Amino acid sequence: MVRMQTSRNLRTNNITRQRKEIAALLSSHKFELAKIKCDEMIREECFVEAYDLLETHLQRIQASLHLIDVNAPSPTPPPAMAASVRTVVWAAPYAENKDMMSLRNLVGQLYGQQYLKTVDGPGREEVDYGLQSKLTHQTSRPQVLSRYLAAIAEASGVEYDDPLAHTPLTAPPVPPGQTPGVVTLPPD
C-alpha cells in the first residue's frame, strides 16, 4: 500500500501542476491544447480515485486474512473477502503497480489460474463498478471537459467562456446490447 500511496501523491502533485499549465494555456487562448491537457488531468484524477478505492479493498482483504485456511485449499476466497479479492485481482493489470501484480499472482497460486480467468471473464461483473470506470476511463465528453476548463479558469482568474460548459450533462448513449450503468470492456 505504501507504493500506491506514493504513486497517488505523485499523481496528485502532477494534477496540481497540470491545473496551472492549463490555466496558462487558457490565458494564452490555446484552447485546443488546454482541452488535451485537461483530458490528461481528468485521467490522472480517475487514477487517484481508483487508488483510494483499491486501498479500501486492500484494507478489507487485510482485515479478513484470518479467514483463509491455507491447509484446506478452496477454489474461491471466503465470502467476507470475495468481492474485494475479485476487484483487486481484476484491477492489478490496470493499476500500474508491481505490488498489485504480485498480489494477483499470489491469489492465482492460492485459488488457481482458473479463478483468475473467471475474474477476468464472466466474473468481471462482480468487480467494483466504480473502480472499473475509473481504471478504464476513455476520452472525456466535451461537456465535462468544458466544465473542467471553466472551473480551472475561474479558480485562476482567467477569462474563459464556453457555451458548452453551461449545457446540462446528460448520460452518454448506451450502445445497443448493453445495460445502462454497466462498463463493458474489450476482450483481452
CATH 2nd-level architecture: Up-down Bundle
| Total domain modules | 1
| Shape field | elongated
Distance between the ends: 27 Å
Quaternary structure classification:
single chain
CATH homologous superfamily identity? Vacuolar protein sorting-associated protein Ist1
Could you tell me the number of beta strands?
0
Beta-strand percentage? under 5%
CATH class: Mainly Alpha
pLDDT below 50 for ≥5 consecutive residues: which ranges? Answer: none
Largest sheet: none
State the helicity in percent bands. 55-70%
**Helix and strand run:** HHHHHHH
Radius of gyration: 20 Å
Reported by name, the CATH topology is: Ferritin
Chain-averaged pLDDT:
84
Which structural class is indicated by helix and strand composition?
mainly alpha
Count of runs of 4 or more consecutive helical residues: 7
